[in-house]
Amino acid sequence: MSQISEAKRIVIKIGTSTLAYATGRINIRRFELLCKVLSDLKNSGREIVLVSSGAVGVGVAKLGLPERPKDIPGKQATAAVGQCELMYLYDKLFLEKNHKVAQILLTRDGFEQPQRRQNMKNTFDRLLSLGAIPIVNENDTVATEELEFGDNDTLSSMVAALTEADALIILSDIDGLYDSDPHKNPDAKLIPVVDQIDSHIEEIAGGSVSGLGTGGMSTKIQAAKIAGKAGVTMAIINGSDPNLLYDLLDGKTVGTVFTAGK
Question: 143-175: per-residue pLDDT in tens?
């Protein structure tokens, strides 16, 4: 737990199902509380990078569509609409707490080309040194299947590795990793710490339970593997109460922590 509590540079990922209601509309109370907590953590001297999903889901609701588009152009169009509203809200709420934000939209090829990867790292480093909060999302408006991360769990772990973060915290719609599916087994037990991701851990990881998001527990396990390989400790906690971030960073047992050694 000390790897989390002592972390100075933290990447925090929040999913669509945590940010928005099932209607796709923003959960304003939770959104405001998240920005308040992150602002307070920033005030304490920590560096915060926020990886935020939600653009497509919010765009779907704003355009009055009955469901999330399945085709690439539809996804790109709804993302373009939704990303505007997301960044407007982040800018407004963080500015109220005297913090500046920056939008960074990424595609996978940026990580794969050495010069672009270095340019990305330089940008993150400079923004953090200037005291800004980078807010990251996949660039859905230009991404094709070849350029997609597939989900923001993967993106957040790649950003954590790129920025040499001390910790990655994924805010999910579930408390953490259970020894069996808690939606099917009421006796399922939360696993507080995972020191090694083996075949058993991968087997018990289930799929997405949200109709708005693209990730599930299996993608979070893959994210933990990417983060761990880069020496970044990762935690999964329930994002329904952003105040749990305080408990986690105070060293209390919250969610599931995937340990990693620098």
Answer: 655 446 667 899 999 999 999 999 999 999 889
Q: Are 132 and 202 in contact (CB under 8 A)?
A: no
From CA 10, how far away is CA 231, in angstroms rounded? 13
Report the alpha-carbon distance of residue 213 to residue 152 in Å, rounded: 9
* Distances from the Cα of 6 to the Cα of 16, 159, 230, angstroms: 28, 19, 17
Count of structural domains within the chain: 1
Binding site per annotation, positions: 13, 53, 140, 152, 172-173, 214-220
Question: Residue 169 sits in which domain range?
Answer: 2-258
**CB under 8 Å, gap of 24 or more: what pairs does 207-212 form?**
209/17, 209/173, 209/174, 209/183, 210/15, 210/16, 210/17, 210/173, 211/22, 211/67, 211/68, 212/16, 212/17, 212/20, 212/22, 212/24, 212/57, 212/60, 212/68
What is the rounded CA–CA span in Å between residue 85 and residue 90?
9
In the annotated binding site for substrate, the residues are 53, 140, 152
Instruction: Write down the pTM of the prediction.
Output: 0.90
Task: List the CATH number of the domain containing 196.
Answer: 3.40.1160.10
Which residue ranges are tagged as binding site for ATP? 13, 172-173, 214-220
pLDDT band at 11 (very low <50, low <70, confident <90, very high): very high
Q: Are 188 and 176 in contact (CB under 8 A)?
A: no
Contact indicator for 107, 142 with CB cutoff of 8 Å: yes
